[in-house]
């Protein structure tokens, strides 16, 4: 038995909106056997644009029952039946959420007439309910009302049944079938073609624009996992509605997928990626020459157009390294901006300062020690490669860190020796870098040192 459902709501996500009208039509696969329809009084004001779209005003629902008063009836009608709707995950998320709030649990098989229509009638320009009704001559005199759209969905469903939809329906409602959870506009065939390999995947909207980038140890499993739950929040529902296609790029290792994901998020700035958009390196160690010719070192917030000598996530890390350099190379606290007041330099009497802040130490002598300190930094930042599996047996993957910075990555012949940095670069693609990527690489080699190849110098 099928339960064909349509609802009208105060907004686009269940967690922050209410149902204003619901219609449920029970169908046995041949004919309608029962019909239920009711306005619903929401707990919030119906926005004006929703009133204009549906024609359901606050006055119309003033005396209507609240959803919790209808919940028992709704649950009985849906229990043990296949829940059918046009874009089923939207309607299902609302009904399940509000039934749960009323103390009822709904766990029904789902069947989406958008997805079913794509299977039975591939290649149509649009699969919206209005366009399908026009395509098949189905009348709907009450568009954007629960009863009218539910009746139109019934007629569409019957038309699909008449055109050999049964095999597809059996596949769709099979237990754990991906067809029940995939977004309405995303073809299962696209997901089925994904490989079981590490890589980066891209979700595209109707215009082909990338709206989300993700990384995966296993592309097929990871993409499928996005659709294993149907959350009631705005972000989740907006996300599902906007996915029309998936593309991907395989990588040899999971670490390469992590790195490529970070690079692509920064390059594409996808709408639904949020975590790494907020990630920015915090502080950097910079050098510059003052008007007297002394090289100064300063810790400051990262500058967009300046390349730091070293970067830190925490200011205290920077000050700790700066003090270590000052002690080792007798650098002036004032010229390093550790002492910022106008009193006498705290380092003059007994080191580390030799009087550069008072121009008592020659510029070239002081600057030579600063250059030594910078050289010391470079020793802390070695050049090395991370070598791992390639995308096939005939190659090996390589990630290159040069003087502590991420240079790039790529693939080498399986028998190539990894012992010369400049030769290695010929095989690699150079990418932009950031603290996040560097952190990934350093954490990886700390955990798996056997994959690290260190270059001399």
UniProtKB/TrEMBL annotation:
CDD domains of this UniProt entry? DEDDh, GIY-YIG_UvrC_Cho
For this UniProt entry, the molecular function terms from Gene Ontology, in alphabetical order, are: 3'-5' exonuclease activity; DNA binding; DNA-directed DNA polymerase activity
Which is a Gene Ontology cellular component entry for this protein? cytosol
Fetch the Pfam families from UniProt. GIY-YIG, RNase_T
Q: Where is the GIY-YIG domain?
A: 196-274
Sorted alphabetically, which InterPro entries does this protein's record hold? DnaQ (IPR006054), GIY-YIG_endonuc (IPR000305), GIY-YIG_endonuc_sf (IPR035901), GIY-YIG_UvrC_Cho (IPR047296), Ribonucl_H (IPR013520), RNaseH-like_sf (IPR012337), RNaseH_sf (IPR036397)
Q: Name one GO biological process term.
A: DNA replication proofreading
Q: Please give the PANTHER family that the UniProt record associates with this protein.
A: DNA POLYMERASE III SUBUNIT EPSILON
The record's subunit annotation is: DNA polymerase III contains a core (composed of alpha, epsilon and theta chains) that associates with a tau subunit. This core dimerizes to form the POLIII' complex. PolIII' associates with the gamma complex (composed of gamma, delta, delta', psi and chi chains) and with the beta chain to form the complete DNA polymerase III complex.
NCBIfam families noted in UniProt: dnaq
What is the role of this chain? DNA polymerase III is a complex, multichain enzyme responsible for most of the replicative synthesis in bacteria. The epsilon subunit contain the editing function and is a proofreading 3'-5' exonuclease.
Kindly provide the name given to this protein in its UniProt entry: DNA polymerase-3 subunit epsilon
Species of origin reads: Pseudobacter ginsenosidimutans
């Amino acid at each position: 038995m099928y339960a064909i459902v349509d609802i009208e709501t105060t907004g686009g996500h269940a967690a922050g909106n209410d149902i204003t009208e619901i219609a449920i039509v029970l169908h046995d696969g041949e004919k309608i056997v029962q019909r239920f329809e009711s306005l619903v009084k929401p707990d919030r004001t119906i926005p004006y644009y929703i009133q204009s779209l549906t024609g359901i005003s606050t006055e119309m629902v003033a005396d209507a029952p609240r959803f919790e008063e209808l919940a028992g009836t709704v649950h009985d009608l849906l229990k043990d039946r296949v829940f059918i709707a046009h874009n089923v995950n939207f309607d299902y998320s609302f009904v399940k959420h509000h039934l749960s709030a009323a103390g009822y649990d709904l766990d029904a098989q789902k069947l989406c007439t958008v997805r079913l229509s794509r299977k039975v009638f591939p290649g149509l320009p649009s699969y919206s309910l209005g366009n399908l009704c026009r395509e098949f001559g189905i009348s709907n005199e009450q568009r954007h009302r629960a009863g009218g759209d539910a009746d139109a969905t019934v007629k569409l469903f019957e038309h699909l049944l008449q055109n050999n939809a049964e095999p597809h329906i059996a596949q769709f409602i099979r237990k754990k079938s991906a067809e029940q959870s995939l977004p309405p506009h995303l073809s299962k065939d696209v997901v089925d073609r994904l490989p079981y390999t590490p890589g980066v995947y891209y979700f595209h909207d109707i215009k082909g624009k990338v709206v989300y980038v993700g990384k995966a140890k296993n592309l097929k499993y990871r993409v499928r996992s996005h659709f294993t739950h149907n959350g009631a929040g705005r972000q989740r529902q907006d996300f599902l509605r906007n996915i029309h296609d998936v593309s991907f790029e395989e990588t040899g290792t999971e670490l390469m997928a992590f790195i490529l994901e970070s690079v692509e998020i920064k390059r594409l700035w996808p709408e639904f990626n949020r975590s790494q958009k907020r990630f920015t390196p915090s502080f950097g160690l910079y050098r510059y020459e003052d008007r007297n010719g002394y090289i100064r070192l300063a810790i400051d917030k990262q500058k967009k157009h300046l390349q730091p000598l070293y970067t830190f996530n925490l200011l205290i890390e920077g000050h700790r390294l700066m003090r270590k350099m000052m002690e080792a190379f007798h650098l002036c606290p004032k010229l390093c901006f550790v002492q910022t007041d106008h009193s006498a330099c705290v380092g003059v009497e007994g080191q580390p300062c030799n009087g550069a802040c008072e121009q008592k130490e020659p510029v070239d002598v002081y600057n030579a020690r600063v250059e030594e300190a910078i050289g010391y930094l470079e020793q802390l930042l070695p050049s090395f490669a991370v070598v791992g599996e390639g995308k096939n047996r005939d190659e090996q993957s390589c990630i290159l860190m040069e003087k502590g910075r991420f240079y790039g990555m790529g693939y080498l012949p399986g028998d190539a020796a990894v012992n010369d940095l400049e030769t290695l670069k010929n095989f690699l693609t150079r990418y932009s870098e950031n603290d996040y990527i560097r952190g990934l690489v350093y954490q990886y080699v700390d955990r798996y040192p056997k994959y690290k190849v260190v270059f001399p110098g």
